[in-house]
Amino acid sequence: MAQPPLVPVIVGPTGVGKTAVAAAWAALEPITIVSADARQAYRGLDIGTAKPPGALLARVPHVGLDVVEPGERYSAGRFARDAAAWLAEIRSAGRQPVVVGGTGFYVRALAEGLFHEPPLDAGRRERLRVWTARLPVTRLAHWASRLDRRFAGGGRQRAARAIEVALLTGRGLSWWQEHARATGSMRPWYIHLTLPRDVLERRIADRVDTMLGAGLVDEVRRTLGRPVAPDAPGLDGVGYREVVAMLAGRLPERELRDAIVVATRRYAKRQETWFRNQLRDEGRGTREGSIWTLDATEAPTVLTARIVDRWHAFTRPSSPVPGPV
Predict the structure, then answer these.
(1) Model confidence, pTM
(2) In which domain, by residue range, is 38 found?
């Protein structure tokens, strides 16, 4: 059986500069960007998810953006199935796919495959859904950790999923992921971008100021007016939930900016911890391993030139050495 194709995957915490590197890559050769960002899948949630600017979207094909409406659940499993089809279409069109995103569970589902889940009783599953919907996210995380000691966090949906699988199958989600995994749709070459903490924190603060100046609060007002529930998938992410709390009177407006900055820093720290500990380096298809960690303080064009050179070094055959004439 043929191996899945090797695909570059740009990962790292929010604000590290993944989009800028992908844009610089697109200026060098024809690529299509596959977004592996759980929040960017939601239509109409553009500012708070830092979707690529319109000029970049007009110049470079993207998939994985605006897939579902706010309020609809979009899981890592669904992403993996969708992205497998996107990758095949991109390759058949003669373009190079580049996966870009900060949602580790999405990347891992695509790279390592989904687990074969046993049938789950529909009635018990619905009763569990109703119960978990009533719990605050902190209690959900508590129960998920009790039921699955290897639960790595990831918000309300991930915690509810861990509880569901553990209670309905008798084994934790991490066990199923480890022992009942199917084949992934690609072999990843991870480009893990990092920054010194003080640099990343400054970038995050600047990004929050830009989002608020661009109309983040009005974006949330429009979404709530559609109507979408305040705690619906999409609005439960960092930035959005703080604005929802401010509009509901639970957070003073003067504290909104700092609340988003603090929450985003914590989110970035969780992302960085996940990428450090969860990515698997098995040297799949490269001479130097499948994870390359880079300091992203360099200019995106400089950084990208290094990335593309290395990518070509192990994906394009070397020129034959001419023999003696």
Answers:
(1) 0.80
(2) 6-114+182-210+272-315
Q: Cα dist. 4→1, 169, 185 in Å?
A: 9, 30, 6
DSSP strands (E only) in 71-164? 96-100
Pairing relationship of beta strands 62-63 and 31-35 according to DSSP bridges: parallel
Residue 121 inside a domain? The answer is yes
Judge if 169 and 33 occupy the same domain: no
**What gap in Å lies between CA 122 and CA 18, rounded to an integer?**
40
Question: Residue 194 domain-assigned?
Answer: yes
Beta bridge partners of 191: 10, 292
CB-CB neighbours of 208 under 10 Å: 26
Number of domains in the chain: 2
Q: Rounded CA gap, 60 and 26, in Å?
A: 7
In a domain, 54, yes or no: yes
Tens of pLDDT, residues 240-296 = 999 999 999 999 999 999 999 999 999 999 999 989 887 766 554 444 458 899 999
Going from the C-alpha of 136 to that of each of 49, 76, 198, 236, 239, the distances in angstroms are: 23, 22, 32, 12, 18
* Distance, CA of 137 to CA of 233 (rounded, Å): 13
What pLDDT is stored for residue 319 in this prediction?
A: 44
List the beta bridge partners of residue 42: 68
In a domain, 138, yes or no: yes
C-alpha triplet 101, 230, 233: angle, nearest 5°:
35
